[in-house]
Amino acid sequence: MSILMISGVTSTSCIGRGLEQTLSALHGRQGGLTPCVFRDMVIDTWVGEVAGVDDEKIDADLRDFNCRNNRLAQLALSQDGFADAVEAAVGRWGRRRVGVFLGTSTAGMLRTEWAFRHRDAVSGQLPAEFVYAGTHSPYSLTEFVRRKLGLEGPAVAVSSACSSSAKVFASAQRMVDCGLIDAAVVGGVDSLCATTLYGFESLGLLAKEPCRPFSGDRAGISIGEAAAYMLVERMAGPQDREAVWLLGVGESSDAYHMSSPHPQGLGARLAMERALASAGLGPEHIDYINLHGTGTVANDAAEAIAIANVFGIATPCSSTKGATGHTLGAAGALEAAICVLAIQNDFMPSSPYTGLRDHAMEINYISQNQGGTISTVLSNSFGFGGSNCSLVFGRPI
Amino acid sequence: MHPAYVEGIGVLGPGIQSWQEAAYILKGERTYVPGNTVLSPPESLPPAERRRASRGVMAALQVGYEACAMAGVLPAEPASVFASSGSDGDICNAICSAIAAGDHLISPTQFHNSVHNAISGYWGIATGAMAPSSVVSAHDGSFAAGLLEAVSLLVTLRTPVLLVASDQDYPFPLYATRPVPDIFAVALILTVAPQPGKSLAQIRIASDQPFTEMPGQTMSEVPLADLSGAIPAARCLPLLQSIARRDTGNVVLEYLDSQYLVLEVAPC
C-alpha cells in the first residue's frame, strides 16, 4: 500500500484544545480527568470532559446537526489551522478528490437521550427538534464535518467501537490506493453520554479513581471525550523531510468475545504484525508504542502478552489514557495525533497516574516521560466485538 | 479500477427468503408479494451467540452464510465489510427508555450489543474469522459506502471479501423519526479473479465518472421500488436486478447527499 503524508493534525481532549496545549500537558504529565459531574449523571467515576463544548454555536444552515458531538467536532476543527490546511489540499487536488473518513462510537447519543426525556406526554413522540440524520445516525458526524469543510469527495462513518478512528486510516489509505481520492480528512469524535457511562458501569469496567493503565492495581477505565483529525495525502512533488507519514496499517478480528479481549492477545498480535508487514518494517524499527492501554485488568494483560510476542520486552511503550481517559471512538485518532507529537518532539509521553508496576507484565512500560530519537511509532486501538487496528507512523526509512 | 467478481449472494427481506427467490422476483418470473421478514438463524451459530444475538445480527449472519455457501468459500476466510445505516434499534430504544425513566442499570449484554459493529463481532465469533473487518455507515447510502469499502479492500488485499449490508426497523418512538419498516439484509462475496461457471457478474466502479449528481432510474415494479426506498440496505436492489437479469450496463446507486455511485455491471 502507498504511504500517506500527514499534512495537517489537530486534537482536542480534556488535556487541551489544539496541539500546543496537548503537548504542554503531556510534557508536564498533567492529566485532564476529574470526578464526574457531567450533566445529571449519578456515577462514581472520573471523566475526561472537554471544557466549553456547549459554548460552540452551530451555523443556522446546520442546525439539524446541533448536538454535543458535533459541537465538539466543530470546536476541534477550528484549532491548529486545520481547516486552512484542508482548503490548501482542496486547492491541490480539487474538492471532489478529498474524502472524509470519521470514527465515532455513539455520535449524538446524548441528544437522543435528551429526546427520550422530552417525549410528548400524550402521544409519546420524540420532540420535533430531534433530527435522526443530523445527530443520531453514526454518519451525522461525517456529514457535519464534510459540510463544514465544503468537501465533496467520498465520505463514510466508521463505527467499530473503540477502534473506529484508527480504522479510518485504513479505509482512507485503501481509497487513495484505488485512485478514487488523493487526500482525506480522517479522525474521530466521541462525546460523553449516559449510554456509555452507565453501560461501562454495568460491565464493571469503570475505575472509581483516575484510570491507571498497566499498573498492578489498575481498576478499570476512565471515559473521556475528544475530537482529533488528520489530513493525509498521497505523495506529490519532492519529499518533505520534516513530514510524518502514515507508513502502515494492520487490522484483525479477535473472533473470541463481544466485550472481552482474546486472553492471549491473539487478535492484537495479528493487527500489529499486519501493520508492520504493511509498512515493510520489522519490530526492531519501532521506537515507541502508544498502547491501547485502557486500564482494565483483562485488556492490559492481553495487550502486554501480544506486545511481548511481537516486540519482545525492550521497546518502550505507554498508554496516554491515564491523561486523556479512554475517548472510545476518538481514541485512535487522538493517540495518532499524540504519536505525531512524539515523533516531531522526540519524546515518549507517560501517563500522569502510573501506579505500581504490574510485574506480571514483562514489557518496557515507561513510568516517566523519556526523550531520544523517535522516528517510527506504532499505535494500538482495540474495540468491542474484537475489532483491532494498529497504525505505524514515522518518516520513511 | 480493477473489477470485482460476484461469486455468491445472500438476501433476506420482507417477502424474500433467499437469493434464489430474489432472482426469480427481480427477473420478473415471480410476482413480489410484500410480507414480513422471516428469520431462519444459521445452524452453525454457537448456542451462546444464538441466545445473545439480536434479530438484526441473525439476519446479517444468515445472508453472510448464504453468500459463502453459494461461493463455496469457508466463512472464516474472507475479509469482511459490514454496512448498516444505524445500530440495533430495539436495544437503542430500550437503553434510552430506561435512562429516561431514571433506571441506570443497563444490561451488560444489551450494552455490548448496542455497538454498531456488533454484527462484525458476532460474525467473527460464529465463523472464527480473524481477517480485517470494516464497519461502515453513510445513512441512506450505506450499501454504496459498503460496496466502495469492499471493492477497495478487495483491490488492496487481493483475497475474497464478504460485504454484508443490513438494516432493521426501529420501534416507536424512534420509528417516527426513522421509519425503517422491517429487516433487510444482503451479502455479496467478491473476488479479484473470475471463476468460470461460478462467477455471476463483474462489477467495476465507473472509471471515467464514479460519482454523479443524477439519480438512477427507479425500479419499474412499484412494490420493489417501495422496498428499495424504505430500507437503506435494500438500495442494493437495482444492482441485484441487473445481476439477476444478466444485464450489461451502468447501475446507479444512492450514496451521499446529491451524489450517486456509478457501477459498470456485466454478466460472467
General description of the model:
Chain A has one domain: 3-Layer(aba) Sandwich (Peroxisomal Thiolase, Chain A, domain 1), CATH 3.40.47.10. Helices cover 32% and strands 21% of the residues of chain A. Chain A has 397 residues and is α/β, with parallel strands linked by helices. Chain A starts with a strand and ends with a strand. Chain A has helices spanning 18-27, 68-77, 82-93, 109-117, 132-136, 140-149, 164-177, 194-202, 266-279, 297-311, 321-324, 331-345; strands spanning 4-13, 16-17, 34-35, 46-48, 98-103, 155-158, 183-190, 223-224, 226-233, 245-253, 288-290, 316-318, 347-348, 364-365, 370-371, 376-383, 387-394. The mean pLDDT of chain A is 96. Chain B has 268 residues and is α+β, with helices and mostly antiparallel strands. Chain B has one domain (4-200, 224-247): Thiolase/Chalcone synthase (Peroxisomal Thiolase, Chain A, domain 1). Chain B is built from 10 helices and 9 strands. In chain B, strands 1, 2, 3, 4, 5, 6, 7, 8 and 9 form a 9-stranded mixed β-sheet that branches. In chain B, helix 1 (19-27) packs across helix 10 (237-244) and helix 3 packs across helix 6. Chain B is globular and about 55 Å long. The model of chain B has no long low-confidence stretch (mean pLDDT 95). Classes of the chains: A alpha/beta (397), B alpha+beta (268). The interface between A and B is large, with 69 and 64 residues.
Give the amount of beta strand of chain B, in percent: 15-25%
Specify the CATH architecture of chain A: 3-Layer(aba) Sandwich
**CATH H-level superfamily title of chain A:** Thiolase/Chalcone synthase
Q: Please report the number of helical segments of chain B.
A: 10
- The N- and C-terminal alpha carbons of chain A lie at a distance of 15 Å
Work out the count of structural domains of chain B: 1
- How many domains in all of chain A? 1
Q: What is the general shape of chain B?
A: globular
The counted number of beta strands of chain B is 9
CATH class of chain A: Alpha Beta
The proportion of strand residues of chain A reads: 15-25%
Radius of gyration of chain B: 18 Å
CATH class of chain B, anyone? Answer: Alpha Beta
CATH 2nd-level architecture of chain B: 3-Layer(aba) Sandwich
Helical proportion of chain A? Answer: 25-40%
